[in-house]
Write a structure and sequence with these properties.
This protein is mostly helical. The chain has 3 helices and no strands.
Length: about 100
């Protein structure tokens, strides 16, 4: 069950990286979203609340909205992962206590 949340999170990360790369691939050669691997790295860092909204040179409003959506949905997925881990641990402990 917990693996499925990680798969969902990484699918979300890859899909949003493709979106960010397709919008900002021409901004600069050293931009955060100029290549697909850089987008993945930057968005993973954004899920850990390390992001810079000043890097959106073109389409700044769309960039802030998309980044906000990514961070909110990504954090919801990660909180669900935490809940699944705690539920599984509680189930295992209660199963051992009953036997």
């Amino acid at each position: 069950m917990t693996i499925s949340f990680l798969v969902i999170f990484f699918c979300w990360l890859i899909c949003m990286s493709a979106v960010f790369t397709s919008i900002w691939y021409e901004d600069s050669e050293e931009g955060l979203y100029s290549t697909f691997p850089m987008s993945i790295t930057s968005l993973f860092a954004a899920s850990l609340t390390v992001y810079d909204t000043q890097k959106f040179e073109n389409n700044k409003t769309i960039g802030i909205i998309l980044l906000s959506i990514f961070v909110i949905v990504g954090n919801i997925i990660l909180v669900n992962l935490l809940i699944a881990l705690l539920s599984e641990a509680f189930y295992n402990v209660s199963k051992e206590a009953d036997s």
